Amino acid sequence: MIEEVIESFKIVAPMLVPEIFSINNIKDVEIREDDALLSYSIPKPLDFEEVLNALEDQMEFILLYYHQAVNGIAFGQSCCAYSNPKYGHMIKINACTNANGMCDSIDVTLYDSLDFMCQEVLEELRLKSERGSFLYHKEECDVMSDFL
After folding, report:
1. Cβ–Cβ contacts within 10 Å for residue 73, how many?
2. Under a CB-based contact definition with an 8 Å cutoff, are residues 61 and 80 in contact?
3. What sign has the CA pseudo-torsion 120, 124, 89, 108?
4. Coil, strand or helix: which one is 31?
5. Are 13 and 91 in contact (CB under 8 A)?
6. DSSP assignment letter at 33
7. How confident is residue 124, by pLDDT bands cut at 50, 70 and 90?
8. Do 104 and 118 form a contact (C-beta atoms < 8 A)?
9. Longest dimension (CA), the chain
10. Secondary-structure percent of the chain, ordered helix, strand, coil, rounded to 5
11. How many Å apart are CA 43 and CA 86, to the nearest integer?
């Protein structure tokens, strides 16, 4: 089942966000028990704002957080977005900046269980809140309401 989800994402993602996803940029695929992780490299690194805008412009992606490890430093900024469960996709996307403050890779987690995805998204939000600071984040109750 998860293999079908992977293949579907590989086909659809370049149409949704062509500046980020290309089948040629997949550097690793890891199939796990409840999900799959696709790691993409971005040959021409993007400004972090470009990544945020690309994710926010897609109607089915909901920004979970925009985070910085240390105030005022471009290195260590990260964001996470997840697909709106109302559209039937179960996807979480993570990006972070490199030492130059640019985004050169993206991790995509594909799920085969909405319950597991919700748990993972909430856990990621909790873990991220322990270090650094949020520039934006959804409240846990709002995240949970997305999954109802």
Report:
1. 11
2. no
3. negative
4. strand
5. no
6. S
7. very high
8. no
9. 43
10. 35, 35, 25
11. 32
User: Which two three-digit tokens encode residue 68?
Assistant: 């910085």
Beta bridge partners, 66, equal 79, 136
Answer whether residue 59 shows pLDDT above 70: no
**Cα 31 to Cα 37: distance, rounded to the nearest angstrom:** 6
Structure tokens at 140: 């846990």
Q: What does the pLDDT look like over 62-101, one tens digit per residue?
A: 999 999 988 877 788 999 999 999 888 899 999 999 999 9
pLDDT, averaged across the chain: 92
Q: For the ranges 19-23, 56-60, 110-114, 121-125, which has the lowest average pLDDT? A: 56-60
Tokens coding 29: 């695929």
Contact 26, 10 (CB under 8 A): yes
CB 69 within 8 A of CB 83: no
Q: How far apart are CA 18 and CA 88, in angstroms?
A: 21
One-letter amino acid of 16: L
Residue at token pair 């890891």: 30
The C-alpha angle with vertex 139 and arms to 82 and 117, in degrees rounded to 5, equals: 35
